[in-house]
Amino acid sequence: MEIKRAETNNELHQILALQKENHLDNLSANSKANKGFLTVMHSFEMLITMNTKASQIIAKDGDKVVAYALVMLKEFKNLVPVLIPMFENFEQIIFKGSKLSNFNYYVMGQICVDDAYKRQGVLNKLYLKHKEVYSKMFDYCVTEVSSSNIPSMLAHEKTGFKTIHTFKDATDEWNILVWDWN
Fold first, then answer.
1. CA dihedral 126, 27, 10, 131 (to 10 degrees)
2. Is 105 buried (19+), middle (13-18) or exposed (0-12) by CB count in 10 A?
3. Under a CB-based contact definition with an 8 Å cutoff, are residues 169 and 85 in contact?
4. Spatial CB neighbours of 60, under 8 Å, sequence gap ≥ 6
5. Axis-axis angle for helices 44-53, 9-21 (nearest 10)
6. Does residue 41 surpass a pLDDT of 70?
7. Could you give the number of structural domains in the chain?
8. Which of 42, 63, 128, 157 is deepest in the core (most CB within 10 A)?
């Protein structure tokens, strides 16, 4: 398995296919509870825009993308309308004595591992690649995870993310997590 930056349109299309398979609308309640789920869908155009500024990190088994971890820069906060409230929340959250939005961070836009590759350390490898590639440019990696997505919460905590804020909106209860690279 190779952990690398996404470079081709084919790799971006494969990210979207894996995303669709794991979106909450396409999973049973049992699957969501045991394996986790995704809440955001991206378009190909969005991924191209995001990838142009900061390469997405993928895991490939041969020619197949089997996992990905997306980079969402602050400048793309309006690209995915459902994420705008998350970025607005960052204007209010106090972290280390200042608004979170004042820090040099990027958002882990989404992370997903194909079912056949789960529990093999792939998620950790994706995050280590993120740290290798982006820790020289950013102080923090920030993400938002549904409290009901227990597998994702556990995986992020195991990686080193710490919950710094929890809130409820009309859809769910959410945790803001930070991975401090300092």
1. -10
2. buried
3. yes
4. 1, 2, 4, 11, 66
5. 120
6. yes
7. 1
8. 42
DSSP, collapsed to helix, strand or coil, labels residue 149 as coil
pTM for the predicted model, two decimal places: 0.87
Structure tokens at 140: 């923090």
CB neighbour list of residue 180: distance below 8 Å, 6 or more residues apart = 139, 140, 160, 162
Segment holding 60, helix H or strand E: strand 57-61
Tokens of 164: 């710094």
pLDDT in tens, 122-161: 988 999 999 999 999 999 999 988 898 888 898 889 889 9
pLDDT in tens, 83-118: 888 888 888 999 999 999 899 999 988 888 998 998
Q: What is the CATH number of the domain that holds 94?
A: 3.40.630.30
- Joined tokens for residue 57: 């990190």
What local confidence, expressed as pLDDT, does residue 137 receive? 93
